[in-house]
Amino acid sequence: MSQRVNIQYSVKIDDLEEEVQRLAGKAFSILGDCVNNSTHMGETKLSVDSHRDIDQLRLDLSDVDAILADINMIISSFLSYKSQEMMQSVPRPPNPLEGAEGAPTDLSELQEKISNFKASLANGEYGGENDADIR
Fold it and tell me: Is 85 contained in some domain?
C-alpha cells in the first residue's frame, strides 16, 4: 500500500475550480483504469495472479477514495468561506439602544432615568385624576 502524506498549499480563489477539476480528473482516470484492468482479469480464480490483481484493484480504489476525500474537503472549505463572506456582507440591523434620537447613550443613564421614575411614582407625582386604576 502506498503511503500518503497530508500537505497544505494555497490556491487563488479564481483557480480553485480548476484545481478541483484536475483532482477529479485524476480520480476518474484511476477509476477508469480499474474498470479496464478488471475486465481483462476475466474469471477470478483461486490463484496468485488473481490475488495480486484484486489487491492492486483495492489499492487503486483506495487512492481514488483519498483523492475524492481531498476534493470533498476543498469544496467544504470553499462553501464555508463563501458562507462567512456572505454573512459579513449582510448589513447588521441597527441596535435600538445605539444612536437613536433621544435614546440613552449608556446603561447608567437609563438606570438613572428608571430610578427617577420610581422616585416620582413613590412621591405620587405621576398619579392623577385621568390615570386609570390598574389594580
Answer: yes
Question: Tell me: the pLDDT tens digits for 54-88?
Answer: 999 999 999 999 999 999 999 999 999 999 988 88
Please indicate, yes or no, if residue 120 is contained in any of the structural domains: no
Domain count for the chain, please give it. 1
With contact defined as beta carbons under 8 Å apart, do 75 and 20 qualify?
yes
- Distance, in Å, from the CA atom of 79 to the CA atom of 120, rounded to the nearest integer, reads 57
Nine cell digits for residue 4: 500518503
Other C-beta atoms lying within 10 Å of the C-beta of residue 27: 19
Average pLDDT, the chain: 84
Domain assignment present for residue 133? The answer is no
> How far apart, in whole angstroms, are the C-alpha atoms of residue 91 and residue 120?
41
Report the sign of the C-alpha dihedral through residues 44, 47, 53, 57, in that order: positive
Q: What percent of the chain has pLDDT over 90?
A: 46
